Amino acid sequence: AWPPGADGFSYQMRGEMVNFQQSDMVTGLRLDLWPTVGWTLERPWGYVKPQAGFRYTSYQLDNTAPGATDAPSRSLPVLSLDSGLIFDRPLQADWLGVTAGTQTLEPRLFYLYVPYRNQNNIPLFDSWQMDRDFDWLFLRNRFTGADRMGDANQLTAALTTRLIDGPSGGERVRASVGQIQYFEDRLVTLYPDGPPETGDNSGLIAQGLLNLSSRWTVQAGVNLQPDSS
Predict the structure, then answer these.
(1) pTM to 2 decimals?
(2) Cα–Cα distance measured from residue 81 to residue 142, given in angstroms and rounded to the nearest whole number
C-alpha cells in the first residue's frame, strides 16, 4: 500500500494465491488480485474519499464435475464514495465521567457500486456471509473470502456521536446507527439455487461503546430487520 501523497492519491494492491486441497471434492489453485486507487480530501470539518478498484480472480481446478470448466475466472470493477461531516461542541459539565470535553456529531454517506457477475461455476472454498455489525455497513463485499463478490448498488447513511474527554483527549463514549438503502436486488448468492435478496434496505444497525478505563471497554450492538421480523 502507498499512503496518500501531496496530491491526495493513494494506491493499494492486494494479492493472494492459495492451493486448496480436500478429500473427494474439487481442489486447486486460486489467484486473487485487487488493485485500487483512491483520492482523499480531508479537512477538520469532514472528508470525501472516492475509490476505484478492479478485482480479478482465476482458478486452476482438479476433480471438477463432468462438463464443468476447470479454469473459471471472474473480473469486475468496484467503485465507492465515502463522505462525512464532523460537528463538535464543548461540554463544560461532567457527564459519564467526561470532564470539560467535546461531543461530536458525525453524519456519513457511503455509496458502493459493483456490477453483477454470474459466479455459479466458481467453487466455494472459503466464502460465507459476513456477520452484520456497524462496520458491515461500509464493506465493499458482503462475503468473506474470494469465491464470491457481491453485486451492489447501494447507499449507506449513518450517524455517530462521540464524547471526548478533555484532560486525556481519549474517546469515552461512542454511539452509532446506520442503514443501507438498496437500489437493486442482490443477485449473487453462495449457492446457484439460492434466492436473490430483494429487500429495499438492511434494517437499522446500532452500536454503542463505553471506555470504562484504559484497559476495559464495553461494546454492544443491535440489528433490526423488519422484513424477517
Answers:
(1) 0.93
(2) 17
